[in-house]
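Recall the central idea of this unit: under ordinary conditions, the amino acid sequence of a chain determines the structure it adopts. In this exercise we apply that idea directly, starting from the sequence alone.
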Amino acid sequence: MLALAADHVVQDNAAFVAACREGLTAASAGRIVTFGVKPERPATEYGYISPGEAISGEVHAVARFVEKPDAVKAADYVNSGYLWNSGNFMFPAAVLLDEYRRVDAASVQAVSDAVANAGRDLGFVTLEPQAFGSAKAISIDYAVMEKTSRAAVVPVSCGWSDVGSWHAVWELSEKDAQGNAAHGTAVFEDSRNCNVTTDQALVALEGVDDLVVVATADAVLVSRQKDANGLKRLVTKLKTVAPKVTEEHLKVHRPWGSYQSVDNGARHQVKRIVVKPGGRLSLQKHHHRAEHWIVVRGAARVTVNETVKTVHENESIYIPMGAVHRMENPGKIMLELIEVQTGSYLGEDDIIRIEDDYQRS
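Accordingly, the structure predicted from this sequence is:
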């Protein structure tokens, strides 16, 4: 198995593939192989690996793992030939399970039970929560790699980053002559080394240096470029002051597709709804709201009480309060529509499901 972190960046794919091939021989012989990145600087945000004796080709046994160092130790590690610990692994599944079982058999059993009793939701496997919750919450480095005699490391130089901070995003981004990077629409005046990410709103910066600005529909972040610890403190405070923004996304996924609120008031709410080909919502009704659906892409088959009709692009249909209704996508492309809700109560719990393909009724 090759276990890779989904949020890491590799800029030189060929070099990384070559490192995987280099490690394959050792992994096939029963080693748990990790990838040690050749340091580009004495970084304090990564753990380090000290390579030991050679095993085969470029692969070495691991002499020791060390935690994230201070600046002085980081410089010493780089001068001593240590490698950044990328946290990516290659191993025979049976070997990893055997080594994990040797050091923490209870956690291996808990995870095995969670897999054996897993369910499915939105196309994803959902591990049985009680069993999985009884496993120790500990990284594989601490649990296995620091304790096994089978650890090996492949040195690699592939333009790697774990994208662990907004500063890392800035480092990987294209910049103007003053070092400013923008994802989305941004204007910089007398500003240097700033990093802007915006979904829609224009962001304009004047007379500032080394700032991160992230503007989304539900929140705006302004932070110092390199203060990763400050951002962690901010998130901790947000969980107390505004927990919703740390727990919920504006786009809500459902088995049939997704919806996103784009405007709301005391007696109205506007949503953008997307229904997958072949998907359909539950047969339902509402006690406190009426709805108006405008199709902007595709075609919707709509049930309202005893009537079933097809609503095409640029057409609309009204759903009276209390009417039994359903929407489905009979086509081969995504169905997109705008829903306008009006009424005295617009909460998601004002849904009486009569029939449902996903057993929610």
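The chain is about 25% helix and 40% strand.
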